[in-house]
What we know:
This protein has 3 domains: 3-86, Winged helix-like DNA-binding domain superfamily/Winged helix DNA-binding domain (Arc Repressor Mutant, subunit A); 95-137 and 240-352, Beta-Lactamase, CATH 3.30.450.40; 142-231, 2-Layer Sandwich (Enolase-like, domain 1), CATH 3.30.390. The chain is 45% helix and 17% strand.
Amino acid sequence: MTDTGKLLEEMNHRSREVFRRVVESYLTKGDPVGSRTLTREMSEKVSAATIRNVMQDLEYLGLLGSPHVSAGRIPTELGLRMFVDGLLEVGDPTSEDRDAIDAEITGSDSSVTSILDRVGAALSGVTRGASLVLAPKHEAPVRHIEFVSLAPDRALVVLVFNDGHVENRVFNPPAGQTASSFREAANFLNSIVAGHTLSELGRVIAAEIGKRRQELNDLARDLVENGTVIWENEGTETERLIVRGRSNLLAGSAEEAELERIRTLFDDLERKRDIADFLNLTQDGEGVRIFIGSENKLFSLSGSSLVVSPYMNADRKIIGAIGVIGPTRLNYGRIVPIVDYTAQLLGRVIADRGQ
Length: 355
């Protein structure tokens, strides 16, 4: 049992109700909750002084905090975690929310890229947060690789897959590359890529470099050994992380401190357009996961929450992830089932397309 689970078990009925009402009010309105307000809402008739004592006890436990002197209380990150783990009631998405997601997935354009983009836009619209969709890597075996120099510090790699799919990826090569080293690196890679997907190539390259180092000059070897920057899709114009609905995070945020936190989040999203760690958040198993505030190591912003779920292909393999990010006072009870529904629906659509 988690620490928050033990705390919840040890709380009496009155403390639990005070805590629950403070959190639910905060998630709905975003304002601190005072003792006088709670006296009108409690299931039993108690005085404001009694409620203040309970709130002080909850504050001592680290579950509630007071943003200003003489203000009411709001839940801390620990308090939100306890509420989400032990008191959150999650139902099914409403028919209206389902219809909004269904309409985008079943649109006329059936390409996966288009579907993912539309789903991201629909999810941000439905949840009023920013949506994050991590697209699947192209997992067909690679047939051919070619390098093209664009500038001293920029190059293009052309990846041709067995199924005819072609991707052009811009990257920063190791310093000093020449036309000869590009050609030599490409020839070496083409001798080993046959039958291997991009996700397998890193391991294959490492093994082959160890056995055949003498076949490459230093420049070509640097390019091959630093190939992980290519396989991880950094710098490509084909973004794997689709972000939609940034403007939703600005709605109703008038305080300068809050706006600064949102600007920090925007900076993070721009710097990490293709975030491998985003998918790693879901690798512990299927289903929705919730990261509250500082629990989320993906972004430097502490005042945000991320609700994320993986989606799977027909073989039940995790191939991508979808999530919603917003302030810690997200409506978790509504957003969790929406994210879960969208992830399952997206997985079925991609499985139907044999991806």
